[in-house]
Amino acid sequence: MKKTLALLLLVTLLLPLAGLAQQPPPPTPPAAPPPAAAQQMTLWDLIKVGGWAMWPLGLCSIGLVSMVIINLRMVSRKNLLPLGVVAPIRAAAQQRDVGQMYTLARSAPNLFTNGLIPGLRKLNPDDPMASKPDMESAIAESVAREEAQIGFWINFLSLITGVAPMIGLLGTVSGMIGAFQKIGMGGMGKPEQLAGNIGEALITTAAGLIIAIPSMFAYFLFRNLLSRIVRDAEGEYSAILDSLTGSGDIFAEAEAAAEPDL
Asked: Who has the most CB within 10 Å: 81, 96, 120, 262?
């Protein structure tokens, strides 16, 4: 009797285990989706991230391109000191034909001729040597005005060089202020909330420097080119005045007399 009860108890204990063994295994959890590929940001996306500061920076970039084109067309030896105009005027000066020089200068207005005409008006035909200082002074004043007029457009490049980084810096400050405001509202542990403001701060700084660096390069390039052209024009003025007033002949004769006879 005891053996029968023990056998029944054993069967009772083993039946639930057999049922568990026959149950199917639990379903495997679904695999996590693969991470999305990083999207490439377009130029428009960068502008939107940069915020309001990108609009004045865009105007600065348009101004930079415009000023470079204007100065490329204006500041050139072909426009300011054309050889086709200088050579005939130099030949007329050697012949001391003031009327021909004046006609040639009036027919081709440029930096060289606009500076020469006031000097020709100061010439005294009866005493050209005595009128040379007045001619030089008139030419110097006219060339200074012409140089300032051309430099007006070159100076816009200097303005863009100074303004663009300042706008970028202002955009940086604006982005950092927004980031600190979000930190104050409890976003310290959520970097995704700060990404937009930090991106604004960095993009505006980079955009300002990208505009300012080529603008500075273009400014010094055109400024040095204009200075070189003016210096060459001054040399031409000096040779023309020497031929026109006869001072060059006097120095040539003095040098010839000073040379020892061989």
From this structure: 120
